[in-house]
Amino acid sequence: MEMIQGLSISKKVVAFTFDDGPHPLYTPQVLEIFKDVGGRATFFMVGEEMEKYPKLVKRVASEGHEIGNHTYSHPYLSKISDEECLGEIDRNEVLVEELIGQKPVVFRPPYFDYNDQVCRILDKKGYSMIGALNFEARDWEQPGVEHIFRASLESVKEGSILIFHDGYGDRSQTVKAVRMLVQKLNNQGYQFVSVSELLRVFNE
Ligand SMILES: [Zn+2]
Fold first, then answer.
1. What separation in Å is there between the alpha carbon of 74 and the centre of ligand 1?
2. What angle do CA 52, 180, 55 make, to 5 degrees?
3. Considering only CA atoms, which of 133, 110, 146 is closest in space to residue 7?
């Protein structure tokens, strides 16, 4: 199983992804940004956070965005047993299904830490493993709005997947940078799609 970081598509589409939420302050701010341009994004949510903010999970889905699996408690998957790994993925899946009536189909491993066993489990369960192209942006380290904006913009081409974070800490820099990016790309004629939509366009 390969990590999908972007797809070669000859169409101006890009997939923004947000990890570690939902978060009561930042997730709604991200939703507003995408509402303004009629775009969709993907939120790789953590099970423990979904349990704290179930209404927010439902809101994200009802506004047309995709919810991806980012495990239940955000562990290093290569450092736990196979059974625990399966449990982490399943507990997240059950929560998503309970809250929005649909199972997640895309997965991102916490810390991008995974091994062959993780791949086998994901494969068996039918997940696609999703990476990103703008690692240089490192929004999780709060390197400054301008840095997140510039480094992400450099990674944008047709079919790019971009990673950001809306949970686990102060994400105000991320929100500002994403607002600037979305405005800029919207002006360039890009459409904002979920990861599953991107996969669909690619397979057409
Ligand atoms: Zn994470």
1. 6
2. 20
3. 133
User: Catalytic residue positions?
Assistant: 19, 165
3-4 and 128-130 strand pairing: parallel
What number does CATH give the domain 13-203? 3.20.20.370
| pLDDT single digits (tens) 37-79 | 999 999 999 999 999 999 999 999 999 999 999 999 999 999 9
Locate 177 and state its tokens: 């940078």
For residue 17, CA distances in Å to 103, 122, 144, 174 come to 18, 19, 19, 12
Distance from residue 204's CA to the centre of ligand 1 (Å): 30
Q: Name the stretches of the chain with pLDDT < 70.
A: none
C-alpha 115 to ligand 1 mean position (Å): 17
